[in-house]
Predict the 3D structure of the following.
Amino acid sequence: MPFKLDDYDISILKVLLKDGRKSFRQISRETGITTPTVKARFQRLVNIGLIKGVYPIIDSEKVDYANNPELRSISLDQQTNNENRTKGKKSRITNIEKNIMIKLKCDFCGGPVAGQMHVLKFGNYERFFCCTACRSDYKEKYRGRIEAIKKRHEEQEGLTDAPL
């Protein structure tokens, strides 16, 4: 007898299709389903073979081909094949090599991050900037959010480190 997906399964799958990196707790918050139920449903979807795995989809436009010329021809072939298959979605690079250079955009002004990058780390996040001015302006603009994320991260770390 075929397995029939219910509303819980569908809502979990929809969240995972948007971002497969989400934790069971994040999925729970978005769907309104308890975390243990999300975990059990996910495991069941894996066990029945519907979910085969979680894979990164690498944005080939981020690869700096000027500094990785050996990847250019491989990726162009893959991109052509993938564009025919995915109709405009980002292509999947399968040949990952050591020292691949990745193009970054400034998280504040959107300009290219060239030379020395300026990094802001808070919670589990990293933001990349082209200059110290952009980093400072970002910190000022999003100060409240950054502090809330730091506080939440510290609380979660405190819960994980607490003795049983």
Remarks:
- The beta strands are 118-122, 125-129.
- The radius of gyration is 20 Å.
- The CA atoms of residues 62 and 103 lie 5 Å apart.
